[in-house]
Amino acid sequence: MTPAVRLAKKAQIPFDILEYSHDPHCAAYGEEAANTLGLDTAQVFKTLLVATDKTHAPLAVALVPVDHQLNLKTVAKCLGQKKLQMADAELAQKSSGYLVGGISPLAQKNRYPP
């Protein structure tokens, strides 16, 4: 059971767990999940971590539908930053406690601004 599932259960948030077999040759995890599960890609979201220049919050979390790209300029503006970049995959995994392709916005190891 993942930390996100434990958190949702504890908060009594209703949810369903949908499972599928991941193709290791597929890099578009969210689109693969949506297509394999027969879901609309506009209703399946990916959790992305971006690197900031703030010492107290070196990362920030962004959610976007899997059929969209994250606009780093827009996120930077929202966070009062001049420029952002995607967080390194290893750092994203270490700080969130989840593997790339399965990073949840819920119950990450560290708390960052949305």
Automatic annotation (TrEMBL):
Protein's recorded name? YbaK/aminoacyl-tRNA synthetase-associated domain-containing protein
Instruction: Name the domain of life.
Output: Bacteria
* YbaK/aminoacyl-tRNA synthetase-associated domain location: 24-110
Coiled coil where?
none
Q: InterPro entries in the record, alphabetically? A: YbaK/aa-tRNA-synt-asso_dom_sf, YbaK/aa-tRNA-synth-assoc-dom
Q: Name one Pfam family in it.
A: tRNA_edit
Alphabetical list of SUPFAM superfamilies matching this protein: YbaK/ProRS associated domain (SSF55826)
* PANTHER family, sorted: CYS-TRNA(PRO)_CYS-TRNA(CYS) DEACYLASE YBAK (PTHR30411:SF0), CYTOPLASMIC PROTEIN (PTHR30411)
